[in-house]
Amino acid sequence: MNDLLKYKQVNWIDGMKVGKDHFIGLKNSFNASVVDLMNNVLNDNNYGLLSLKDDSDDFLNINMVVDNQNYLRVKILSCHAITPGGYRVGISEDGSDQVDYTMQDVETDYDLASANNSELFLIISVDPFSGIPEGMPNPSEVPLRLPFISPEYKLHLIPAEQVVGYKLGPNLLTLSKISIRNNRPEIDDQYIPPCTGIDSHPRLVEFHSYIDKNISALEKDVVLIISNVNEKRSSNILTNIVIFISENLLYFLSNNITKTRWLLKSAPPIYLFEIIVNMARVLKNSFDVRTAEEKEVLINYFSEHFDIAQSKFKQLLDNAIAIEYDHTDINESIKKSEDFINVISQLFGELSKMELIAGERKKPAKERKSFDLHIRK
Hints:
- This protein has helices at about 5, 20-40, 200-230, 235-260, 270-290, 290-305, 310-320, 330-355, and strands at about 50, 60-65, 70-80, 90, 105-110, 120-135, 150-160, 170-180, 185.
- It has 3 domains: about 1-40; about 45-195, no CATH class; about 200-365, no CATH class.
- The chain starts with a helix and ends in a 24-residue tail after the last helix.
- Mean pLDDT is about 90; it is low at about 95-100 and about 360-365.
- The chain is of the alpha+beta class.
């Protein structure tokens, strides 16, 4: 049921008898309105970990131990996020003003005896309508009470096969992946949970910096290639297709580099991968529209100078275009994107160093540039 339908506004009238339940109803109605508002601006690609505006907390801090009963115990020390349905997660380990506070422990355990050689997902659930009392009591108040409430958080360790391919509920959020090998659990450092923006996770920040650096260098290399060919005024089958592809790529880069550098560093991750997929599409379409003779000459040139076979080159472009962004497992998109960017950056970097782009000039075999075309399935 929609929270707004379940938690309706209180009808206040003069002279009514006021009790605790009325104020709880007011709070729940307000929370339901906030959740409904957030739910209308969220989609499948912009929920998750929030970016921190200061350095008071880690973006996500997980403590994991195994006790002498062979139980894995996991505790969240800090987490700032929003679930797919708009429920806010705010767990902080900053004790500067909470030294003596009674705080909610957000933890769970798992019997490792039943989880050998498996993977678990750490999932948090949040219920803002079930308030958990916390805080430091005021000794002057009678009766004594914990002065504040926070949403109820629960942690769940779920086997991967029960999570992958399924859509979680609106109040659930995957935080981490834990691999268990020989009864030893380890947090998967390669796993990136859903993030509201690129600046929500250090690995996404690193990836954005990597993309920014490489496409900026790619722009310089493409300009140099076009300039070199124009200065020599050479025209043949090879230079015609190289210039055509380079000019299309340059136009694309000129229209997207500033956007990537200024806007995407805090945008949802999907928009950065959109740039990469579109760039692969520009390259593939620019190659595909040329004549069979031109394509054969270019591929032969790549093979002779850079050891790039036609099948591998086309597979690289096809894989980049076919990237399917998964907001619940962002690292898979990163790996395929890096494969594409690495090779394209090296390829155009080497082309820009060639004194002459012409079929008749060949590098000696010992000078031939070799690329590691590790194509992921």
